[in-house]
């Protein structure tokens, strides 16, 4: 997978750009599957994460300003996606060390980009669910993200403030790969956000 990781991450990110392109100001107050975050906050977080990961790929992940939040706009989200995909496409990026303050540690590029891939598969679903739209990421993206989601540690740390994922939920035997990723990372599939009354 490592040789395809950057291309697969790009597919995941581009699918979110497509979803976000139709977001209006009226949509920003919609609830999302992310506890305590409306759609505007989620999209602001996603934009900041793109910029932060781009900085980390360039050796500046420790600069907290690179991860700061700014008011959301569709244009800025698309620009942040372009920024991170260009940073990930740089020669040798998989073997660089990414400093990721959110995780309190540094990681090899291939692992850090794997984190990014999983995050945007899940956040793509979050955005689509908030908007009431279908979500069908590329099967190759889902196949790449599944073993990464399975490797994310579960336990009490997921209950701490700021934890990136809620505790894992049970995965029935006949669960499809995307749903397994979502359940492993604490998403409640039965709870679809009621965005119409937001």
Automatic annotation (TrEMBL):
<dbReference type="InterPro" id="IPR017517">
    <property type="entry name" value="Maleyloyr_isom"/>
</dbReference>
<dbReference type="InterPro" id="IPR017520">
    <property type="entry name" value="CHP03086"/>
</dbReference>
<dbReference type="Pfam" id="PF11716">
    <property type="entry name" value="MDMPI_N"/>
</dbReference>
<dbReference type="InterPro" id="IPR034660">
    <property type="entry name" value="DinB/YfiT-like"/>
</dbReference>
<dbReference type="InterPro" id="IPR024344">
    <property type="entry name" value="MDMPI_metal-binding"/>
</dbReference>
<feature type="domain" description="Mycothiol-dependent maleylpyruvate isomerase metal-binding">
    <location>
        <begin position="13"/>
        <end position="128"/>
    </location>
</feature>
<protein>
    <submittedName>
        <fullName>TIGR03086 family metal-binding protein</fullName>
    </submittedName>
</protein>
